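Entry:
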Amino acid sequence: MWRQRGKKNRDSCQQRRPKLLPFAARLLEAENKERQPLSSKKSLDFSGDDSLFDEDEEDLKSPLLKSPPAIAPASIAPPVCTEYPADWSLKTRVLFTSPLSLNWAEKPKAQEEAAGLSQHCRAQYNTLPHSIQDAKSCSELRSSFQQSLVYWQHPSLPWLSLFPRINAERSFTGKSAPWSQDGALQQSLMSEWSVSLSSLYSLLKAKLCPYFYLCSYQFTVLFKAAGLTGSSSITALISPTTRGLREAMKAEGIEFSLPLVEELRKSRDLDIDNELDCGKEKDDDCCGGKEEDDEEEEKERTERKSDEHDEDLSWLKEMGVQDKIKKPDSISIQLRKDGQTVSLDHKPESVVLVEGPDTFTLINFLINCKSLVASAGSQAGLPPTLLSPVAFRGAALHTLKARSVNVKSQVGMGYQNISSLEVTGPILPSALHSITTLLRPAQKGNFSASLYTHAPTAVMNVNKNKTQSSSSSVDLSSCGLLSASVQQLQTPSTLGKTALNHLNMNNYSYTWKN
């Protein structure tokens, strides 16, 4: 009996098993096909009737189906930036750091220093290789570095530091100033200063000087030759300014603009236009009832304006005596407008842009402006400082101070030796670019720089010229600068009213912060 029942059970199992065989067979076939090499298969078939998964051998050769290491890494590599944007602000200090030693930049030999000065005066530049193996023994590199530190200044008083001039009363206090009480000496200083300023403008007009700075005790003026920052004419930026200075310039017939104020107005008008456009779109969608909403919005706007006008009298309304107060007349309204104009004084938004022939009128205005020189205080009777990258009449040759120091920086649980190079003085835009150009091959494309900006000149990067031209349309080959520096300064600045604070070069590629 037991054998018969077992036989019946086996028969019944064999009868039920064929129902599962087709599904199991499909699974086994799929597994076997997956184990086979791709080259031996013509297609990947998961079912006999399903043609959506069929792929030919040509499709299998597509690079998208290959393993990730087979794809070239250059397609996802970050872009290489070989240049940083031009920065027209004056720097008071720059600290360079690098994992490689920077001691090659200090204590030049007498012959190397003489070669650097001679090359600067003759506007000659050495051609350096892409990478320098031993920077300390490369005399061409060391002489070129001395060449990049040179600048020209007027007036030149050895016992006084004539930069910066704004908020620098402490550096002048207690120093000898024989001209402060001598009117004849002050007149002589101003006469020589006027000659130097006229010489600089003539060089600028002839494209023999790319730019120069005028630093007074109240404001700084940057004159740029035609062809720089994309402008087809000479431009001048003045920052910061006051209402009195702007009114005096208007009285002399000098046309100027306030680029940052105009930019702010355009942005506000754009916001209003966007609101109106959005209103029109809603009008098309709603198909009615929008005219009443527009009227309500207009009423709200007029109410806001009236609230702004009555804001100064709100405390009288709280006392209940507003009816006894007369409404603002035309004089008070004009005073309120003047107050808005005065609120720009000494701020970055007060920067003034002068273009074209008006820059010549500006030169005459500055020569004859009595408020250009302080009448009291530690800077009384002292003419403004003129700074230029090239020689001009009455100028004295100066060099920036540079010193190299080895420091240690904590990296993880240990310390790593890092070499640093500190450069101090009125660092001009072309000087900064020429120094970084030398550090590129000397440090093998790896260094960083912390930049300290003279605050009133940070806004000099604003670029709102009325007339734009191609940088190649104006020939500045005789301006005395390195050709790479000229190309950088010809490009319109993208920094706006800010300045560079940090530069970093890694593997010959720049990154920066502003």
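The chain has a mean pLDDT of 79.
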